[in-house]
Specification:
The chain is of the alpha+beta class. The protein is about 15% helix and about 25% strand. It has helices spanning about 1-15, 180-185, 195-200, 205-215, and strands spanning about 75-80, 95-100, 105-110, 115-120, 125-130, 135-140, 145-150, 155-160, 165-170, 180. The strands form 2 sheets. It has a 5-stranded antiparallel β-sheet, covered by helices on one side. Strands 6-5-8-3-10 form a 5-stranded antiparallel β-sheet.
């Protein structure tokens, strides 16, 4: 498993590096993120290069299974600029995804990244929905070794449809792709969206909206 993860990691890095990212092209060898800097920039300010070490470019733990003991039955382990400050301005990141039997990564979007997902173990039902007005659902069942692309900004999801746990690795074309989980955003915003708005949007009674908001 560890060897296969390593191989997919390097393939994903090579593939995603060819994608045009929204981050501006770096104007120096690297710009290790300095989260303590008071500077306000589009991204993160650079750490003094004289203070940079190998630790700023590494992360350990992608070989470890995530804890899927939660209502969704899935766990995402991100490896972005927060975990690897050296990714700052490089326009790339990745994530490990673990799914127990029947587990899902619910409908969500990445506002700043295209995602390339590779299945390492198990079988996944995946898909995305195109933008208005067509809202076409494009889906496929993936097996070990299969790859699927989720275009930037489109709502997408995954579900484990195999009989064992599943593992996938995603490469994303941003150091900070962001994630908007649809249910959390619509029913769990802070402050909450007025129930009359949601009732009208979903064409249901306000009592149903209240039930949908309750878990959040």
């Amino acid at each position: 498993m560890a060897k296969s993860i390593l191989v997919v990691f390097f393939v994903a890095i090579t593939f995603t590096a060819t994608i045009n990212a929204f981050e501006p092209s770096p104007l120096q060898d690297f710009c290790v993120a300095d989260p303590t800097s008071p500077a306000r920039v589009n991204g993160l300010a650079c750490l003094d290069s004289k203070l940079v070490t190998a630790q700023h470019f590494s992360f350990s733990g992608v070989h470890m299974a995530g804890n899927t003991s939660n209502p969704l039955g899935s766990k995402v382990t991100p490896v972005n600029v927060v975990q690897i400050p050296g990714l700052n301005t490089l326009g790339i990141s990745l994530a490990r995804l673990d799914y127990r039997w029947g587990g899902v990564v619910p409908p969500h979007t990445h506002p700043r990244a295209t995602e390339v997902l590779t299945v390492l173990e198990g079988s996944l039902y995946v898909g995305f929905v195109t933008s208005n007005p067509n809202n076409q659902l494009i889906t496929k069942v993936l097996h070990k070794g299969d790859v699927f692309v989720f275009p930037i900004g489109l709502v997408h999801f995954q579900k484990n449809v195999g009989y064992t746990n599943a593992v996938a690795l995603s490469a994303l074309s941003s150091q900070n792709p962001g994630v908007i989980t649809i249910a959390n955003a619509v029913f769990g915003s802070n402050p909450g969206i007025e129930d009359s708005v949601l009732a009208k949007a979903f064409q249901v009674d306000k009592s149903i909206i209240s039930r949908l908001q309750a878990p959040y």
